């Protein structure tokens, strides 16, 4: 089963990886009841009296290869640095969490639940369930600042699985976990995934302090100081009235640049806009955070860079690049970070936010573990910047999961084979009772996973019919033929794909200033106009969009997907709540009073309004004309310029062509009879690979259908993806710290920024106007949490940076070579993943069978 916790960037692609075995959510509340009691202990440990059952062992020499295809091959699966869903692909094969989810069956029963209708949480890399030691740690370790009133939920000991080893047999013990956490948070390495352990619900005490140890944190001065407002200290560095040192931000995010960095612009445009004479000297002076001290000498070197005619600034503009430095104290890992060794095979974990029961185990279904010797050998440093090649090749990868990486060819092929040193093959826990024959089988019948890049759906289909792939995701043209096949499976998913629209004004202005950009023919700036964005939003009939582009998917209306479960015990879904329905009615301007019920009102939403689209396009024309974005030189009421919108590709294929053509067709239909008739063009970019998200975030590409995948049991945690600039697609041009929201909670009106509301919703104690609030799990009632989530969703939608279009899902064919032990989809377990896949034929038998069928299979 794939880990449930992490959230990934996800692109709308032709087919989902392991979609038929995925671990997402749907609308069957009868199958989601868990087996964790309030103390965090798992029930169903298999100790109940059972009738003697036959235990089946698979033939040791037989090969059963899972043959998979992906659109984009993973390039970096380092658990400390990966960013995308593509790069996370190897995780479920080569790693294991502290705890995992398995089906309930006769070996792992759940009271009141039939076999295979629920789930059981079992220790995996842990040896047993966590033990709450909050009172003990609070008394013995005041440095972790556990609240005086807390009696539970803040500190745990976890006994570790003594049988867990690396694929080469190296033991994994408490030292392994402490080393890995120390490296993950290392202030010099600045690992992307470090924030996962202090900026979300699962927050380790002291982790943030250590991650920033000894570094100067820079805050954009936001053009608040000119040189005249500052004084010099004894070292000749300027300081503000509070005595804080001032710096020049070369590679620091600046509001003056719309959330981008000066170095980003210089790297992109070079001498075309900047004086490069001193640039390399300045870059060599930068510290690891991208700043240099503000001194007279440094300012003299800096000002010529920006004081150019092409950049349209003078030396007087230099103050826009000033940043304020805060020196974070140097702290040691030991005594600061709440993750330490308390036995050879035991760690103690101290949290800064309380977490218990299901949510604690859910958070621990992933892992941060790395191999010390290999990790160290993969690190390199250049001018204070550290990079790592860990988990980028066979040679730099060691497994502690059921499979190990045995072959890797970048952009072509990966192969995983059984890791014979994995404890799960011999511990007696990784087996199940077959629901048909009642026999006990080992999990993970697949002996290998063979994965190759196959971009085109048509090629995947041909390979599938020849028996060369295990699954094939149906395309629109396949539905009539295959949707009733006995081998066809529908699989829902949590992701909503929204059209992300570029709002990065500064980046757009710079692109328009390029020598090869013809402003008499084309325009980019109009896409930042709110009326234009609203017009795009109502130009697409979501149901028709899904039916035409990807019929297995459905219409999407909110940024929180239809299959997010907010209560794992009951299977209740966020989108089924009154709060979520009212949120959509509010955003789409549906008057509930015009309907017999809220359900009926919400069901009426289509997101499509061609009349409004024409009015909005006309308003956008007038506003863009007034702003100077476009012209109408002959006064015919038609834009002289075509608004060109680049669609950001990770890889190109027929599906992407079809998608972009459809986006073009429908928006131009909506613009007929308006000043933008025939004047909007959405075109494909060059393939950007895994850097596609960077292109969107920096405003160097304009739109893409993308979303967030993962964390299907925590819709509340999604809010951080929209307020945290480290994650948000629009973080360079939307500042959630400057947008306020007011709500009435228990009769009290509370006003705070979107960041404050998101933090409080996810378990942080936040000061709202002098009063502290915490709206995290267990800190307030669930209806209040749903109220806040719904209100935040509306605020995010109102930016029109995200236009929801499609709810993810898949209808796919499964090979005749294998079958699912459980065919019915389970919101928590999916269909069990690769561990619950059984084979009808081994590889030799499969080859013979294909030949008997004439080389092409019928489905």
TrEMBL record:
InterPro entries per the UniProt record, alphabetical: SBP_5 (IPR039424), SBP_5_dom (IPR000914)
Keywords recorded for this protein, A-Z: Signal, Transport
Region (Disordered): 25-53
Cleaved signal peptide residues: 1-19
Gene Ontology biological process: peptide transport
Domain Solute-binding protein family: start-end pairs: 148-206, 333-726
Pfam families recorded: SBP_bac_5
GO molecular function ontology, one term from the record: peptide transmembrane transporter activity
Family assignment from sequence similarity: Belongs to the bacterial solute-binding protein 5 family.
Protein name, per record: Solute-binding protein family 5 domain-containing protein
Source organism of the structure: Candidatus Faeciplasma pullistercoris
């Amino acid at each position: 089963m794939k880990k449930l916790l992490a959230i990934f960037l996800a692109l709308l692609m032709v087919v989902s990886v392991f979609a038929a075995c995925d671990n997402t959510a749907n609308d069957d509340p009868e199958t989601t009841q868990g087996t964790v009691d309030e103390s965090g202990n798992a029930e169903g440990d298999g100790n109940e009296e059972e009738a003697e059952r036959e235990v089946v062992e698979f033939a040791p020499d037989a090969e059963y290869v899972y043959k998979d295809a992906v659109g984009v091959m993973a390039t970096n699966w380092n658990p400390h640095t990966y960013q995308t869903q593509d790069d996370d692909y190897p995780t479920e094969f080569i790693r294991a969490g502290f705890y995992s989810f398995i089906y309930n069956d006769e070996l792992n029963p759940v009271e009141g639940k039939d076999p295979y209708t629920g789930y059981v949480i079992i220790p995996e890399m842990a040896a047993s369930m966590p033990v709450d030691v909050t009172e003990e740690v609070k008394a013995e370790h005041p440095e972790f600042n556990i609240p005086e009133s807390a009696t539970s939920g803040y500190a745990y000991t976890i006994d570790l699985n003594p049988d867990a080893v690396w694929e080469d047999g190296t033991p994994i013990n408490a030292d392994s976990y402490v080393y890995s956490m120390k490296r993950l948070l290392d202030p010099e390495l600045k690992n992307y995934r470090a924030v996962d352990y202090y900026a979300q619900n699962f927050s380790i005490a002291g982790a943030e302090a250590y991650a920033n140890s000894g570094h100067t944190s820079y805050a954009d001065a936001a053009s608040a100081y000119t040189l005249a407002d500052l004084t010099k200290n004894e070292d000749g560095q300027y300081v503000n009235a509070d005595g804080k040192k001032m710096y020049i931000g070369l590679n620091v995010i600046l509001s003056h640049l719309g959330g981008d960095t000066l170095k980003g612009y210089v790297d992109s445009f070079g001498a075309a806009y900047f004086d490069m004479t001193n640039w390399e000297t300045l870059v060599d002076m930068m510290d690891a955070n991208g700043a240099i001290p503000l001194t007279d000498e440094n300012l003299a070197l800096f000002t010529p860079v920006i004081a150019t005619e092409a950049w349209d600034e003078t030396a007087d503009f230099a103050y826009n690049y000033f940043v304020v430095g805060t020196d974070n104290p140097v702290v040691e890992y030991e005594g600061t970070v709440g993750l330490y060794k308390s036995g050879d095979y035991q760690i103690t974990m101290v949290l800064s936010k309380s977490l218990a029961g299901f949510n604690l185990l859910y958070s621990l279904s992933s892992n941060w573990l790395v191999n010390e010797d290999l990790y160290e050998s993969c690190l390199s440093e250049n001018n204070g910047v550290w990079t790592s090649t860990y988990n980028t090749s066979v040679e730099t990868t060691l497994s502690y999961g059921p499979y190990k990486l045995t072959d890797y060819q970048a952009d072509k092929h990966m192969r995983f084979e059984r890791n014979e040193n994995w404890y799960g093959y011999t511990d007696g826990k990784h087996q199940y009772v077959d629901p048909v024959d009642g026999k006990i089988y080992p999990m993970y019948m697949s002996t290998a996973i063979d994965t190759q890049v196959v971009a085109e759906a048509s090629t995947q289909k041909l390979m599938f019919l020849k028996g060369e792939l295990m699954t094939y995701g149906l395309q629109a043209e396949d539905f009539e033929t295959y949707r009733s096949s006995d081998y066809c499976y529908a699989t829902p998913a949590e992701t909503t794909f929204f059209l992300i629209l570029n709002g990065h004004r500064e980046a757009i202005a710079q692109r328009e200033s390029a020598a090869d950009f013809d402003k008499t023919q084309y325009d980019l700036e109009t896409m930042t106009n709110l009326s234009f964005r609203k017009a795009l939003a109502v130009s697409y009939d979501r149901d028709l969009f899904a039916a035409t582009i990807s019929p297995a998917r459905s219409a999407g209306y909110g940024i929180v997907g239809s299959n997010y479960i907010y209560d794992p015990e009951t299977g209740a879904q966020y989108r089924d709540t009154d709060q979520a329905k009212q949120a959509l009615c509010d955003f789409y301007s549906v008057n509930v009073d015009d309907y017999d019920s809220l359900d009926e009102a919400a069901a009426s939403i289509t997101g499509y309004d061609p009349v409004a689209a024409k009015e909005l396009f006309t308003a956008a024309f007038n506003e863009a004309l007034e702003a100077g974005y476009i012209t109408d030189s002959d006064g015919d009421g038609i834009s002289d310029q075509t608004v060109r919108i680049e669609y950001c590709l990770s890889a190109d294929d027929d599906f992407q062509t079809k998608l972009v053509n459809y986006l073009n067709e429908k928006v131009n239909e909506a613009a007929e009879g308006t000043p933008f008739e025939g004047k909007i063009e959405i075109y494909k970019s060059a393939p950007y690979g895994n850097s596609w998200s960077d292109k969107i975030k920096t405003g160097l590409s304009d739109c893409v259908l993308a979303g967030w995948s993962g964390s299907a049991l925590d819709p509340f945690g999604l809010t951080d993806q929209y307020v945290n600039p480290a994650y948000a697609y629009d973080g360079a041009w939307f500042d959630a710290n400057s947008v306020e929201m007011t709500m009435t909670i228990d009769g009290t009106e509370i006003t705070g920024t979107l960041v404050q509301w998101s933090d409080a919703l996810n378990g942080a104690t936040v000061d709202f106007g002098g009063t502290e609030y915490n709206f995290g799990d267990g800190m307030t009632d669930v209806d209040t949490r749903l109220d806040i989530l719904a209100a935040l969703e509306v605020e995010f939608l109102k930016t029109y940076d995200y236009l929801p279009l499609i709810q993810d899902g898949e209808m796919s064919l499964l090979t005749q070579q294998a079958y699912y032990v459980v065919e019915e989809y389970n919101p928590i377990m999916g269909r069990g993943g690769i561990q619950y896949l059984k084979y009808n034929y081994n590889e030799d038998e499969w080859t013979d069978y294909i030949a008997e069928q004439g080389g092409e299979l019928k489905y």
